[in-house]
Amino acid sequence: AWGMKEWYDSKFTEVAALDEESKDIKHKAAQVGDENFLILGSDSRVGAPKGAGIGTEETVKGARSDTIMIAHLPKERDRAVLVSFPRDLEITRPECHRWNYKTGEYSDEVVPETPQVKLNTAYAEGGPRCVIKWVQKMTGMRMTRFVGIDFAGFKEMVDAVGGVQVKVDTPIVDSILGTVVDKPGLVTLTGDQALSFVRARHVEGDPTSDYGRIKRQQQFIAALLTKTMSRDVLLDPDKLTSFVNAFADATFGDNIGVDQLLELAQSLKGLDTDSVVFLTVPTTGYANERGNEVLLEDRAQELFSAIIHNEPIPGVDTGEDASHDTSGDDSSTDQGGTSPEGQ
């Protein structure tokens, strides 16, 4: 078993990202024993074949973070909190070293601090290290694990485990991608469907494009992790090996391996629905004159302070109106959303 674990771990691509000694980390004593995964979905198209539905390197230049999410497990492991950030959130991008997404390496060139830019440019310019630098400064949280997923290999991960089951309330029809899910209820997504499910930004009935997509991404990532912990996968060597191979091909990370991924998956699977909380960082809910989402900084600080100290989360555990001054569709909080799969 140990040899198999070493083989799995050796397949993960290591990329420098973490800075656990950063001066931006607050209340360090309160965070001892916590695990904070920064999960980043990259929309670089390196190696993506034509007709894959995600564009190619020729049609979509560079690499930008399409998904940015913190998965927090407190030391007590009595809840899990997943916080997503709109990719169009307006930030002051910190000074960072230039990142080459093709090689996964940083250069000596310094990209200066730049105000009033979109969050996803942090990854494009400075890679995961720049994203984590901004995240830690804004949240005060210590990121302990980093995992990046490239959409070019996303479909294979899903197909390797025989699809992933999610529950949808209405059909999902996107004006660009077409019909993703044709009827409400429980549906097992194929790799092609899953890719469209997490990338759809122009869905009929979505009041705002980014927040509906964030909810689907949160729901799907939780469902995928739950599926990997199911007996159907863990007790099937061929299926498990296929998933690990596909996952390793599509991911890169820092301080991440089989044990850490299984702990996150097991925590999501083992907690009851009310103890797994999905959030979107508080924003005004509408774009400013630069087309960027605007962070509600005071509310964000309240949120991350509650997470750090494992206290009731404003708007969720306290019964407050979580949708006030956010996107207007109650997108700042959403409990549950994990798949029933893997029971």
TrEMBL record:
InterPro entries membership: LytR/CpsA/Psr_CW_biosynth (IPR050922), LytR_CpsA_psr (IPR004474)
Domain of life where this protein originates: Bacteria
Stated family: Belongs to the LytR/CpsA/Psr (LCP) family.
A Pfam family matched in the record: LytR_cpsA_psr
Domain Cell envelope-related transcriptional attenuator residue range list: 64-228
Biased composition (Low complexity): 329-343
Name of the protein in its database record: LCP family protein
Region of interest called Disordered, as start-end residue ranges on this chain: 311-343
